[in-house]
Amino acid sequence: MHATDRITQIMFARAVSAGRAAELIADKEELRETDRFFRRMGLHRNHPREVGLLRNHIREQVAHYCAGVNDGANAVGQSWPMWATGFESEPWDPVSVLLIGNLLSFGGLAVSQLENERIVVELIQSGASEAALREMFADRLDHVDFDLIRQVASMPRMSDEALEVLADLPRLAGSNAWAVAPSRTASGGAILCSDPHLEINRLPAIWYEAVLRWDDDYVMGATLPGCPLVAVGRTSKLSWGVTYMKGDTIDIFVEDCRQAPTGQWQYRRGEKKWHDFQIRQEEIGRKGGESETLMVLENPQGTLEADPAADGYQFSLNWTGTSPGSGAAIGAWLDVIAAPDVASGMEVAEQCPQPTLCWVFADIEGNIGMQGNGRFPVRRSGATGLAPLAAWDEVNHWDGFLPPEYLPSIYNPECGFVATANEEQPVVDGVRVTSQTLPDYRKRRIVEQLNYADEVTVEEMQALQYDYISLQARDLLPYLLPHVADKNVVHRLENWNLDYTPDSHEAVLFQRLYRNTLLEIFGHAEGLGRRRVLYVATRVGFSSMVIAAVDRILKKEDSLWWKGRNKGDLIRAAAEKLSLEADKPWSDVNNFYFTDRFFGGISGGRLLGFESRPYPMPGNFATIFQGHVLQTAKRSSTFAPSYHFVADMATSEAWSNLPGGPSESRFSAYYKSDVPRWFDGHYKRLSWEENV
């Protein structure tokens, strides 16, 4: 069915992950750029090795899946987008499965960590106050040599167009998952709720919903086309959902490089020892054009981010996902389907090497639990991984991987529920698995509501997935309003219910006051700079890491960020500028349109109806329903619930909706068949029984 309904999606996704998009799809600069990115990392080279390391029963299941994809592909033939681009498909094999998994693990998730580490480097290199940056990222930059980083050539940035290609990957920008024990439910069974968040305005939807039945068992939920995995789902015994832990498994290093008289590039270790880089050649194909050769320099500590232009310092990159055994992740997704209970599911999840996730479970016996997973490097004492270290000092090198006891794990807590929503994980023995500063607004809102809940129902949990209340606004208003002179603004925001519904004018008012305050406090030349503040707060560069850090600073009485200035005066000046903008509802500010992944944004696509009318997006990044709209170089982008799933383990059913449908064909009735439910907050019943 993946091949029948999503043949273009899986074939194009494999081409991108393999670094062959410009060769197989179209010779466009943004595709050549993403090809260079993936080929430089060299992930494609490891997959044959990883297939050989799969356990026999996993390899067998993967082989059966591939046979099914090939049967479907042979029956379907070429889709319209494949015909239009002259795409020649190749047989699906286990390597293809692992390539699709890499889109989720690296292209969609590890890259988001990398982008935030790039932001830290850029802030350091921009000349912002060292002391102020250390305050902003408290306890995370204590080990960092700012002077060294400022001597390194700027990190290469991908173009906005290439970043948009990466943004089209299954990228869990934020997610919610929680489970409620039978002691708190009306049915007497445990309830599992999960809604992964990613870009939702590009159709077809990332997820493909399925109900699979065999013998007397079943599995139902969200599957990823191209992979035999159920990301969110349930069986007759167990249900599960995941959130992105935002764990730090990727590090940037600084290499001291020189070119030897022979022309060979070398890197330094210690004071005077020089070693030759390993050189890898990658041929980047071009559809209808001559291929280009990419020379990649690497060593045991990583891969240079760019070819060195001269002797001196260069950045390199290392990711734990390149180490042997990383392909075993597909085994975890298959084994969890066979797990009989929460304890078994947690054991399976704990061994999953990538990506870093928090798994939430519930079973028919009433057990609930949460288990983190991921392969984290052992860094030197005091190092967090958020900023680069010198690679020539061997004390900075990774020393194996952290044991499982550093992973978050909860089983049947006394409070009667578990919840996770991309919050920071606790520091264990001085070790952070999440190096970013992360907001906890969604997690706290979920916990608040569950603390008051008793005899909860499926309908109440569905309503909680559609909660639009912002704890960010509740937290910050007491620090902002005392300095606002306009009594009308104060009155409106004091009486606002903190709800980001489409018709809320106060949501826009708060967002403008917040934005103006950030510009006044952090946007000055000696700080982050006006353009950078606008970038991280409003465009594709939006960084929840920076937002979480500045929100904490706004609550402080004294800070280096307003040293020599009066905090109250800055907020007052920010509020005075509110009158310069027209009063609008949230729907006028936070809206989006659906577009087709393959034909959206082109004139022919618009004429054929591949782009929709504008839709209002409720919520924002700080609400449980994370309705987050960004403006990229050429189009709007969204982070929002890509799948709503609620399962009461006292029954054999589940309830769901998603912003899309099963078919990738714009002309199919199933292209966006679930979209009305998603907007209205209505759920459909999933059942393993026939004729339901």
From TrEMBL:
A Gene Ontology molecular function term of the record: metal ion binding
One Pfam family this sequence matches: Penicil_amidase
Cross-referenced Gene3D superfamilies: 1.10.1400.10, 2.30.120.10, Glutamine Phosphoribosylpyrophosphate, subunit 1, domain 1, Penicillin Amidohydrolase, domain 1
InterPro entries: Ntn_hydrolases_N, Pen/GL7ACA/AHL_acylase, Penicillin_amidase_A-knob, Penicillin_amidase_dom1, Penicillin_amidase_N_B-knob, S45
Binding positions for Ca(2+) per the UniProt entry: 115, 248, 251
Cofactor(s), names only, from the UniProt record: Ca(2+)
Source taxon at top rank: Bacteria
Keywords linked to the UniProt accession: Calcium, Hydrolase, Metal-binding, Signal, Zymogen
Catalytic residue list: 175
Record's cofactor remark: Binds 1 Ca(2+) ion per dimer.
GO BP annotation list: antibiotic biosynthetic process
Protein family membership: Belongs to the peptidase S45 family.
Name by which UniProt lists this protein: Uncharacterized protein
Lineage: Bacteria, Pseudomonadati, Planctomycetota, Planctomycetia, Pirellulales
